[in-house]
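Record 1 of the preview.
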Amino acid sequence: MEKSLIRKKIINTRKINFNDNLNIDFLKIISLIKKNKKSLKIVGGYYPVNYEIDDIQILARLEKKGFKICLPKIKKNFQMDFYKFSTNDVLKINKYGIPEPLANKKVLPDVLLVPLVGFDKNLNRIGYGAGYYDRAIAKIKKKKKLLTIGLAFHFQEVKIIPIDKFDYKLDFIVTNKKIFQ
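->
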């Protein structure tokens, strides 16, 4: 199935099945971080939109545990950078209606919580189609090691995600039901 059809189908399914009570277990995230590297201190997240898994609660708990957290700001040419963020910070709405940090201190995350539209058991993902996360992952990986953790509802899994040379596999995908690795 073509990416655009998968995207449309899953976004509709996500909207129909969205439930605030379907959450990711924080302990699954913290165990993946601790298991993979003890020196991982900066966690990048996202501000959830369009019925995505809400990672703000996860980021708040990570911040309480001493992690530095950051959120992306959209830039020109389908680029984005990550900026220091605290759950107490005021955010500014960007041109896409997504809240972004006001901070100007750019940071490179050690761990990236990645939103996704769909995924398969091989850790492939599709987003909304603009490639922001694939570009950001590529840029960060040129400068340092990066642990990528996709967050999704279990019903966002599909049999096969078609991939191309610009697509990055994730290290893990955590759903409300299980961890894919």
